[in-house]
Design goal:
The protein contains 5 helices and 6 strands; from the N terminus they run ββαααβββαβα. The chain has helices at residues 18-25, 28-33, 42-55, 104-120, 134-142, and strands spanning 3-4, 8-10, 63-69, 75-83, 89-95, 125-127. The chain has a 6-stranded mixed sheet, with helices on both faces. The mean pLDDT is 92.
């Protein structure tokens, strides 16, 4: 997969991204809102990336793709589609705290969603976040999701 926006590139993971994934996962927001996606070591991140890479080419998921800045290929986070039940999928995303407040999550979700919906063959996508995650709720609203 390769999706380009004005500022971002959404592509597939490679093992060389493990250190960035590890670092991006350690901020306090990630620990608070998605603690199961915190990678305490580079090796933990590498193992997860290997699994995620094994999912590419299929439609069972999870389907997780890094978000890179087009200007210098800095890894700022990820966007994903995760299967729930009965053909329903969940859109997910994370942007490392050092890069939040720039609209990257909204830009990534807007670009990724139509491609991902077609890829997995669903017409039902949910955006789920904790009620206190105001920034994530804002992204979902800006991308057309309702609460």
């Amino acid at each position: 997969m390769r999706i380009e926006t004005e500022r971002l590139l959404i592509t597939e993971f490679g093992l060389e991204m493990a250190e960035d994934v590890h670092k991006n996962s350690l901020d306090e927001d990630n620990r608070r809102f998605v603690p199961d996606e915190v990678f305490e070591t580079v090796e933990d991140a590498k193992e997860t990336i290997e699994f995620l890479m094994s999912q590419y080419g299929g439609t069972e998921g999870p389907l997780v793709y890094p978000i890179l800045l087009k200007s210098d290929c800095t890894n700022v986070g990820y966007v994903q589609m995760v299967p729930l039940d009965d053909g329903i999928w969940e859109i997910g995303y994370q942007v490392a705290k050092a890069y939040t407040g720039n609209g990257y999550a909204t830009e990534a979700v807007r670009a990724f969603l139509p491609v991902a919906v077609k890829l997995v063959g669903t017409d039902s996508v949910q955006g789920i976040c904790l009620s206190e995650n105001v920034a994530s709720k804002h992204v979902l609203r800006k991308c057309g999701f309702t609460t």
